[in-house]
Amino acid sequence: MNSRNTGFKVVLPLAPAGESEKYPQKFRELGAEFIGQRCEGDDDFIALAGDADAIITVGSIRPVPRKIIEQLKQCRLISNTQIGYDSIDTTAAAERGILVTNVPDYCVGEVSDHAMALILACTRKVVPLNNSARKGQWGLSASGIEIQQHIWPTMTRLEGQTLGLFGFGRVARALVLKARGFGLRIIAHDPYVTPETARQMGVEMVDWKRLLNEADFISIHAALTAETRRIFNLDAFKEMKPTACLINTARGGFVDEAALLQALKEGGIAMAALDVMDPEPPDPNSPLFTLDNFISTAHSAFFSPASEAERWHRPVEEVARVMRGEWPNAIVNPQAKEKYIARWGQMKEPG
Question: How high is the pLDDT of residue 306?
Fold first, then answer.
């Protein structure tokens, strides 16, 4: 490490646990100081990170808003351990020449597996059948009248149905390979992807209205922005088939949950399976949890022991690059580079 990194300080505004308990040793090997400490609020965060050179955070748990960024005296890097980074004010960071990174591909397999599992749970009614069995009901028996009359008629064959993907990035493309094995027709809506790119994977690009009108399942895999926040609102649900199912393993902010509640109760759509909600954790008394046609998996789609290790190790690599005078690999606000160079000098491309 070069001499300008003497006293390089890295902070984590959360109590180290699991993989992050390895951070003190990892950063000591890099020649950096590391402090991990639970911050209850913004003031605690500012006190911890005010003189830090790099911040590692879990954005969905400990966001980094403008208020905090404006108090960072010498921060060069904010590294999020997640794919999404909407909880970090990347514009404010760029204004101060602070680079923001994410971990764009660490749990692609896990999330696409989970989305496929939720599709199967919806169509094969896995949760209602499990609940019925636990109550002593059994399909082909006198005790199974409720199953026979109310659950079985709603079960469908996947083959020949249409999966609609909202967003066509890494996770959506991984899901395509899995969904195709079930015989699903696949359409997608993503204004940033060319029809030819999708066509090469056997996917038809469609406009927003066609996605809503034609899909039997809509699975969300986009970036949460001001334009996409609560895009699944009452107007959207009115355009969907009454037999359609909504799957969300991306960010809770895509879905207007009050509108979803109304659509599920009134038969506007058949079912929703959400791994993520907004806010998190949700109110345990949310009326969504009282519905038989609603599934929640408690923001677990990303997890496996392998993905967990990877997501906590990547920020260490990004900090190491900055300390070597290299640009990080996964910068999400490249507009910050000019001011970064003005403050800290020229950087090399990652080696």
Answer: 95
Enumerate residue ranges in the chain where pLDDT < 50. 1-5
User: How many Å apart are CA 226 and CA 338, to the nearest integer?
Assistant: 25
Residues 217-273: tens digit of each pLDDT: 999 999 999 999 999 999 999 999 999 999 999 999 999 999 999 999 999 999 999
How many CB atoms are located within 10 Å of the residue 237 CB?
A: 23
Where in the chain are the domains? 3-106+305-344, 108-296
Active-site residue list = 251, 280, 299
Q: Which residues pair with 186 in a beta bridge?
A: 163
Instruction: Report which secondary-structure segment, H or E, holds 79.
Output: strand 77-80
**Cis-peptide into 284, omega within 30 deg:** no
The two three-digit tokens of residue 82, written as one number: 């997640």
CATH for the stretch 108-296 = 3.40.50.720
Q: What is the CATH number of domain 3-106+305-344?
A: 3.40.50.720
pTM of the model: 0.86
Side-chain-side CA neighbours of 256 within 13 Å: the count stands at 13
Alpha carbons 60 and 216: distance in angstroms, whole number: 30
Residue type, 191: P
